[in-house]
From TrEMBL:
It is an enzyme of class 2 (transferase). This is gluconokinase. It catalyses: D-gluconate + ATP = 6-phospho-D-gluconate + ADP + H(+). The keyword Hydrolase does not apply. One of its GO terms (molecular function) is gluconokinase activity. Its EC number is 2.7.1.12. Pathway: Carbohydrate acid metabolism.
């Protein structure tokens, strides 16, 4: 069910990157197979996987406006999550428990440093 949607998303990212020089997409690529598909379909994509504690994620979800995912689905999302493994060379995990500004800073550093090996950021 997700496969066609992920393929469309990857195609849109590839098209935008060709036109603009780069592209950023956001989705819940919780499984390695989803991330692998996005990377292979786009070619040079890197994935930043935001993760955090249940409490921190729940707190952020509770204050979002017009968000389609109800907080009642958080536990199933966390159960589905496959954290990146060392073989996922283009996947960077960033802890999102910090303030939004700090998370944004970590993501920017991750994406700017193209020579950095994939790793977990605090």
């Amino acid at each position: 069910m997700r496969l066609p949607w992920l393929q469309i998303l990857a195609q849109a990212a590839r098209k935008a990157a060709r036109k603009q020089g780069c592209a950023v997409v956001s989705c819940s690529a919780l499984k390695q197979s989803y991330r692998d598909l996005l990377i292979s379909e786009t070619g040079r994509a890197r994935v930043v996987l935001l993760h955090g504690t249940r409490a921190a994620i729940l707190k952020r979800m509770a204050v979002r406006e017009n968000h389609y995912l109800p907080t009642s689905l958080l536990d199933s999302q966390l159960e589905t999550l496959e954290m990146p493994n060392p073989q996922e060379k283009k996947v960077f995990a960033v802890n999102a428990d910090s303030a939004s500004e700090k998370v944004f800073e970590l993501v920017q550093k991750t994406l700017k440093n193209t020579l950095a090996p994939p790793r977990q950021y605090p």
